[in-house]
From TrEMBL:
Organism the protein comes from: Pseudonocardia spirodelae
DNA-binding region: 34-53
Keyword Zinc-finger annotated: no
Keyword presence, Ligase: no
Residue span, HTH tetR-type domain: 9-71
Pfam families for the chain: TetR_C_35, TetR_N
Domain of life: Bacteria
PROSITE patterns for this protein: HTH_TETR_2
Keywords: DNA-binding, Transcription, Transcription regulation
Name used for this protein in its record: TetR family transcriptional regulator
C-alpha cells in the first residue's frame, strides 16, 4: 500500500510540474493561461487542475513559489560552495543576477517588468524577504557569533541591492556582486 501511494504521489508531482511548466511558458509569452486551456495543453481534465491547484490564483501561487524556491536554491548553493565569506557572497549574488537575467519569469517577479506580473500578480517584497531570510540563515551558520541585528541588516541589504541591480544596473553584474559582498562583510565588521 505504501509503495502504491508513493507511485501515485510521484505521478501527481510529475503532473504538477508539467502543468507549472506549461503555465510558465504561457506566462513568459505574455499569455493569460486559463484553467481549461492548461488542462487541454497538458491533456488532463479541468477538474484535475482544480483539484490540484484550487483555482487560477492557486496555480499562480504555486508557480511563484516554485520559481522563487528554485532561484533561492541556486543562491544558497552558491553560498555553500565557497569557504571564504567574500567569495561566497560574490558567487551568490552572481548566481542570483545570472538566473534573473536568463529566466524571464524570475526577472519579472523581482522587477515587475514584462507581462508576467499582470498575469501572476506583482510585488517582489515576499521574494526579497525570503531571499533575505535564507541569506541570514547562512550567515548565522557560518558566523554564529555575529550580532543578530548585523546578520539581519547584511542579509536584507544584500537582497535589496541585488534586486536593485536588476532594476537599474549600475555596471557589470560581477562588479555589483563584488560590491554587495563587500557591503555584507563590512556590516558584519569584517
Amino acid at each position: 500500500m505504501t509503495e502504491r501511494r508513493t507511485m501515485a504521489r510521484r505521478a501527481r508531482d510529475e503532473l504538477r510540474d508539467e502543468v507549472l511548466d506549461v503555465a510558465e511558458d504561457l506566462a513568459v509569452a505574455g499569455e493569460r493561461p486559463s484553467m481549461p486551456e492548461l488542462a487541454r495543453r497538458v491533456g488532463v481534465s479541468r477538474q484535475t487542475l482544480y483539484s490540484e491547484f484550487g483555482d487560477r490564483d492557486g496555480l499562480a501561487a504555486a508557480l511563484v513559489l516554485r520559481t522563487t524556491g528554485r532561484w533561492l536554491d541556486g543562491i544558497e548553493a552558491a553560498l555553500e560552495g565557497e569557504a571564504d565569506l567574500h567569495a561566497a557572497w560574490v558567487a551568490a549574488v552572481g548566481a542570483a543576477l545570472t538566473e534573473a537575467a536568463e529566466n524571464p519569469l524570475v526577472k519579472a517577479l523581482l522587477t515587475g517588468y514584462s507581462a508576467v506580473p499582470s498575469v501572476f500578480g506583482s510585488g517582489s517584497g515576499p521574494i526579497v524577504d525570503a531571499a533575505a531570510a535564507r541569506a541570514a540563515g547562512y550567515l548565522r551558520r557560518v558566523r554564529p557569533g555575529a550580532a543578530d541585528a548585523d546578520v539581519r541588516l547584511a542579509a536584507e541589504t544584500a537582497a535589496r541591492l541585488t534586486v536593485s541591480h536588476l532594476v537599474q544596473p549600475p555596471g557589470p553584474a560581477q562588479r555589483s556582486a563584488t560590491d554587495i559582498a563587500t557591503v555584507v562583510l563590512r556590516v558584519l565588521g569584517e
